[in-house]
Amino acid sequence: MSEKALSRFRQPISVPGRRLVHHIPLPFVLKKVTGGGQRSVNQEIPLIPFIDFLLCIVLFLLASFSATGELPVDKNVQLPKAENVLDMTDAPIVAVTGTQILVDGTAAGSTRTIEEANRLQRIDELFNILKNKRELWKQVNPGRAFPGIAVLQIDRRVPALVVKSVFQTAAMSGYPSISFQVGRLGKPGG
Amino acid sequence: MAGIDVGGGHGGKRSLNHEIPLIPFIDFLLCLVAFLLVTAVWTQMARINANAKVPGPPRDDEPDEIKPEKELHVEMRGDRKFQLVWKEGATVVNTIDVEKKQVDVGSEGDFRYPALAEKVASEWKSSGSHRSPSDTKFDRAVLHTDNSTPFSEVIAVIDAVYTPQRDFTFGGKTEKVPAFNLTFAVN
Description:
The structure holds two protein chains of two kinds.
Chain A: H1 3-10, H2 27-33, H3 47-63, E1 81-82, E2 93-97, E3 100-103, E4 106-110, H4 112-117, H5 124-140, E5 149-154, H6 160-172, E6 177-184
Parallel strand pairs in A: 1-6, 2-5, 5-6
Antiparallel strand pairs in A: 2-3, 3-4
Helix pairs in contact in A: 5-6
Chain B: E1 3-4, E2 18-19, H1 22-39, E3 45-51, E4 70-75, E5 81-88, E6 91-99, E7 103-105, E8 110-112, H2 114-127, E9 139-144, H3 151-161, E10 165-170, E11 173-178, E12 180-184
Parallel strand pairs in B: 4-9, 9-12
Antiparallel strand pairs in B: 1-2, 4-5, 5-6, 7-8, 10-11
């Protein structure tokens, strides 16, 4: 009996490790079968938790989705909040920011003259712009009744005198149904 | 990749195992997320209605005499109390005082007048004229305010006036709307 065979007999349990194709005495085969001494770079990406995560985001965004869109509010305007409100409507927006009055983003006068006079008065520039808008609407929609709705986007700190002046000016220029843009406040217990 | 393994596929039959194409599904979900994020609305805007007391266009069937309707005048110029005055034309029908008790809401300086809201609601229940859902007219409220009053305070009072709600049928659809239609007093 050879010595090698004897040693195998004495050690029936051999050291664990790779055995297949290891007997081929070629370096490139040996390199391949031992994995080149490196760990495999292939990795399984756990896609199922990723899809679950995406589905949760989709459901949340769908739940908070609003098809009515949103009106841009100037960052300097702090709107007050109210409970008993209506949904927004498509109408010309008269914004009062600081001392400036804007109609759909276009300058339409200043509040300084009202504050200096300290009395309710018509704002001529605003009046003309709104009147022109009304005329334009009637030309574009002949035969249809003019809704006469305007939305006032007014900062919470603006004094009532300015609010009333803008309100009356809008009414005189053909917009008697006026809405104040506000933030929606949750009803108590609702 | 995800797959469905139901066994089979032996004995010359077609395999029943299927690979679910997850990559297009993930692409679809990502597109959906991107669209929803772009169109997402994080602030809830709304409007509160007011009406200017302006005459409408002349009608053929103009009545000879218009009976003055009852109006609720809300006087908010006092420091300590609101005054609710029911008027029929120039005649004062009833006057009610309500304590000016401000209740803060949230942390952004918003506030409410729940006592005023409660009183206006009870007044409308007892004295309101337009209650039928088919009635196209609304009870009128007139707000008297000081020139220097901040707009947030005006809105808090308007919000209280709009607390009583009634059914309103329009175009076969009935919905809850504020019972009062508010306008500003010029003086």
